[in-house]
Amino acid sequence: MSASYIEKLHLKKVRQFKELNISFNKGFNFIAGPNGCGKTSILAGISHCFDHRGFQYSRLGDDSEFWTDLTLNDHKKRIGVGQNSIKNDGYRKSTIKAWTPPTQEENRENILIHESKSKLREFCPLFIGAHRNIKYIQISGMQREQPIEEQLTNRLATSSHSLYGDKQTNIKQWFVNRYFMIDKEWAKEERENWDHMINNLQTLGPFHSNFSYVKTGKDLEPIFSIYGNECYLEELSAGFQAVLSILAEIFEWIEGTRDEGDRIASEAQGTVLIDELDLHLHPEWQFTLRDGLTNIFPNLQFIVTTHSPHLLASARENEVIVMAKNEYENEYNLEPSKFRFSGWSTDQILSEIMGVKSLENKDYEKLINEAFVQVEKKSIDGLNQAIEKLKMVCHPNDTILTVLNTRMASMVAISND
Ligand SMILES: Nc1ncnc2c1ncn2[C@@H]1O[C@H](COP(=O)(O)OP(=O)(O)O)[C@@H](O)[C@H]1O
Ligand SMILES: [Mg+2]
Questions:
Q1: What are residue 169's phi and psi, to 5 degrees?
Q2: CA atoms of 77 and 377, how far apart (whole Å)
């Protein structure tokens, strides 16, 4: 089978990066590193290579250049812009002044950004940002799906917007549409995809959760089952909602951006980029998510960001791209690490990958130390107290605080078993 995936990204004078070169493998890629090191910026950089209508999300300068190398059906392509393409008219106001092609590489076809739809029609990446709660909406019936040309145009135009939460997605409509079309004669691929999803839902859920779809009733409210309880979509915990919305978005994208005959999820190729894959997920989910996703979409490439040691522990060799904060130089050459981290402890992952340095000095570090002592002792009360003290001194989004909270959740889960 021929292959299609993103190979590399090159950024020069884009956002905080003086220069960044990063290569990906054709399966799963976890970009890991501390808050603020530039993980989301990498995804945004890729989105700019495919469309200029999201440039306002990044500071670009007159000397910026950026491109993405990819393989499409075994042919090598490079899409982006070279030097002297961008005009910087102030904050959030970068425009294209000339379409200068990227640096030419032998045996690689150069494509300009505005040619993405015509020349890379079969390669329209999916961007999923770190905002994925499901708000309750009432669905009144089936919604006509946009023709493929319109979907491609819209998706390309809003790929950066998706990363920053400025695009509404409504996965409930997708479930409801499925209800209406599932027994129609013409819906062959849709039916196959639906069955495939239903049959594999369990592999995504934590062990023993028996996560499954039950039905969509006349009121058009999809119902699921989890740990033996029936639940409406909006009643599911944030973690289940997060996973379901990722799943539905991927199915919707596969079916909406490909021609009839090419829409089978278990065969589909292409790239899905997800910011903060661990968001809202209980550690039990984090351990199963990678394998669940590759089970359902075995031929897709995933490029995801994370600061979860649990998620990293589920990665295989050549899947983790470690990004350290590099405040002075801002030059990066990154590639997947040959190691896998399943045997590493949370603390080792924290210090080696998340760039957490000494745990001995200062209030903050003393409190962290204290918290890890409680983790070692397996004391839920002790850890709770340590976390409360730590909360008083650190930022609410502090990476270590997040990790400790996750640890706490798994200790509570284990003690409840
Ligand atoms: N639009 C922008 N233009 C230039 N630099 C930016 C922009 N947005 C963020 N940055 C820089 O990127 C850093 C954060 O990068 P980000 O990719 O959000 O990190 P992460 O996702 O790893 O937490 C900020 O500290 C800031 O210096
Ligand atoms: Mg981020």
A1: -120, 150
A2: 54
334-366 pLDDT per residue, tens: 999 887 777 676 767 777 777 666 545 567 777
pLDDT in tens, 299-308: 999 999 998 8
Closest atom, ligand 1, to C-alpha of 275: 21
Shared domain for 143 and 185, answered yes or no, is: yes
Residue 89's alpha-carbon distances to 86, 96, 234, 386, 410, in angstroms, are 9, 10, 43, 49, 50
Contacts of 44 (CB under 8 A, 6+ apart): 15, 54, 57, 58, 160, 163
Residue 390 near residue 399, CB atoms below 8 Å? no
DSSP letter assigned to residue 155: H
What's the confidence (pLDDT) of residue 348? 73
Q: Give the span between the Cα atoms of 172 and 135, in whole angstroms.
A: 9
As a whole number of angstroms, the distance between CA 10 and CA 81 comes to 10
15 lines ligand 1 (CB under 6 A): yes
Give 186's strand partners.
none
Q: Which two tokens stand for residue 332?
A: 């990066």
Contact 22, 321 (CB under 8 A): yes
Ligand 1 site, residue 39, Cβ cutoff 6 A: yes
Ligand 1: does its nearest atom lie under 6 Å from the Cβ of 77? no
**Pocket perturbation via mutation, ligand 1, pick of 11, 16, 86, 275 by most ligand atoms within 8 A of CB:** 16
Question: What parts of the chain have a pLDDT lower than 70?
Answer: 133, 327, 343, 345, 347, 355-362
Q: Is residue 351 part of a domain?
A: no
Cα(294)–Cα(315) distance, integer angstroms? 12
Nearest Cα residue to 125 out of 275, 308, 333, 307:
275
Rounded CA-CA distance 113/45 in Å is 13
Domain that holds residue 224: 5-346
Decide: 287 and 406 in contact? Cβ < 8 Å.
no
Q: 230 φ, ψ to 5°?
A: -80, 140
- Picking from 284, 312, 346, the residue at the C-terminal end of a domain is 346
Contact status, residue 387 vs residue 356, Cβ threshold 8 Å = no
Residues 241, 290, single domain; the answer is yes
Measure 35 CA to ligand 1 centroid, in angstroms: 9
Is the CB of residue 217 below 6 angstroms from any atom belonging to ligand 1?
A: no
Task: Please give the Cα distance from 415 to 378 (Å, whole number).
Answer: 10
d(CA 309, CA 298) in angstroms, rounded, equals 23
